[in-house]
Amino acid sequence: MDFDIELEHHEDEEEHVLLTPEQREQIISLGSITPAHGKHLIHCLTIIGQIEGHYLLSPQTKTTKYEHVLPQLVAIEESQDIEGLLVLLNTAGGDVEAGLAIAEMIAGMETPTVSLVLGGGHSIGVPLAVSAKRSFIAPSATMTLHPVRMSGVVLGVPQTLNYFEKMQERITRFVVENSNISPEQLRELSFNTSELVLDVGTVLEGEKAVELGLIDELGGLKSALKFLYKLIENPE
């Protein structure tokens, strides 16, 4: 895969390369990049596909590995050079505890953070989207809210149901604390039985997610970067 982009030629035919070898390797290995020639030095982190937790998913599945993301967040927070973090989301969900771990890390950062939902921010992608200091969603993007689900062998005992209830409460509490949606609205949307054919829950388009207070603003990359620069230049 070749990311070299020739921008222009001067008389000496010198090539201007947009990405360095280190940046290309960063994109290929971790799905992130730290551009060096922008208005401010920001780190761009992508969260795509399935959030992979303690168990490996199939090679055919696009994944975001939490063991790759957590150290990056520590490095960003400790860096004296990186001024802000832009999180790009297009995820179908995945491991609940891994997703919550990443979301809690982002929410606890002092570094200015902005999230942008592109395509979809479904399931555990919802806490990830609201974890930043400001969240954006593209008009064409959607978000799916539904109760906690588990695949594989499940014991049919009261303790299992109790575990599900506690996990659902953890997710609800985090989303409510990091957005402007009420717990009653969130539960109603998550347990809606009239919209999805084979599941329980609700699919929200970008405009509706903002209207309900789940996401802060409707916008794209330009809007997200503009607000991130504002956070950097005018810290609260």
- List SSEs in N-to-C order: HEEEHEHEHEEHHEHEH
Q: How many domains make up the coordinates? A: 1
Largest sheet: number of strands, sense, barrel closure: 7 strands, mixed
Determine the N-to-C terminus distance.
41 Å
Low-confidence stretches: 1-17
**According to CATH, what is the topology?**
2-enoyl-CoA Hydratase, Chain A, domain 1
Structural class: alpha/beta
Overall geometry: globular
From the alpha-carbon coordinates, what is the Rg to the nearest angstrom?
19 Å
Measured by DSSP, the beta-strand proportion falls in 15-25%
The mean pLDDT is 88
What's the CATH architecture name?
Alpha-Beta Complex
Q: What proportion of the residues is helical, as a percent range?
A: 25-40%
Number of helices: 8
CATH class: Alpha Beta
> How many beta-strand segments?
9
CATH level-4 homologous superfamily:
2-enoyl-CoA Hydratase, Chain A, domain 1
Q: What's the quick description here?
A:
This protein has 236 residues and is α/β, with parallel strands linked by helices.
Please specify the SSE layout and strand pairing:
Blueprint: H1 21-30, E1 32-33, E2 42-52, E3 63-65, H2 66-78, E4 84-94, H3 96-107, E5 113-121, H4 125-130, E6 134-137, E7 142-145, H5 158-177, H6 183-190, E8 202-205, H7 206-211, E9 217-218, H8 221-233
